[in-house]
Design goal:
single chain; alpha+beta; PvuII Endonuclease, Chain A; six-stranded mixed β-sheet; about 20% strand; elongated
Length: about 190
């Protein structure tokens, strides 16, 4: 049997990372993955290559949500024995904002194409009720599937945590979140 496993489930890795950081894993699939002892929300990700996978169906609302959480990202290897962490970072959403803006720009450009078609339909006499329903469906459907975050955004902007000294991580996170509080900023909105 190879020492390399084919896959380690994301939930298992998230729990491992949360435990290492003394975070409480959320029991909900939507919203933050975990919370610290004072209620700060966290998105937990792991990577085995040169980028971090994000989520299916990422829309503008998703990115707005991402900006309301701290990010804990572990880089490591999937072995038959489990996920081995080689590096661990905490990122404030501002550290990842360059990538967030790139994804938003792509989404807004996609909406602009849809809006051109809707405007042409309106000019050709399509009923306003039909246009409204189609517009709403298009807005919900404009998403990107798993836009990746290059690790350079994580390693250059985030703070590396001492994953080999877990007893220090909780106090480092506490200091980090105190010095860099979250500010929920609205992202770009799609014009109706």
């Amino acid at each position: 049997m190879s020492k390399y496993a084919t896959r380690v489930q994301d939930d298992s890795r998230e729990r491992q990372i949360a435990d290492l950081c003394e975070l409480v894993v959320s029991d909900r699939r939507d919203g933050p993955d975990a919370y610290d002892s004072v209620g700060n929300p966290y998105e937990i990700k792991s990577a085995t290559k040169n980028s971090v996978t994000t989520a299916r169906d990422v829309g503008l609302h998703t990115i707005q949500s991402w900006r309301s959480k701290y990010w804990i990202i572990a880089i490591g290897d999937n072995l038959a024995s489990g996920f081995i962490i080689n590096g661990l970072w905490i990122c404030h959403p501002d550290d990842l904002d360059e990538r967030f803006k790139e994804i938003e720009s792509d989404l807004v450009a996609s909406w602009e194409k849809c809006r051109q078609v809707l405007d042409a339909a309106r000019r050709s006499g399509v009923d306003d009720g039909v246009l409204g329903e189609v517009r709403d469906r298009l807005q919900r459907g404009i998403t990107k599937n798993n836009p990746k975050i290059p690790l350079r955004h994580v390693t250059s902007g985030g703070l590396q945590l001492p994953h080999s000294r877990p007893q220090e991580i909780s106090s480092i996170l506490s200091e980090f979140t105190y010095r860099r509080p979250l500010a929920a900023l609205p992202g770009p909105q799609i014009d109706r």
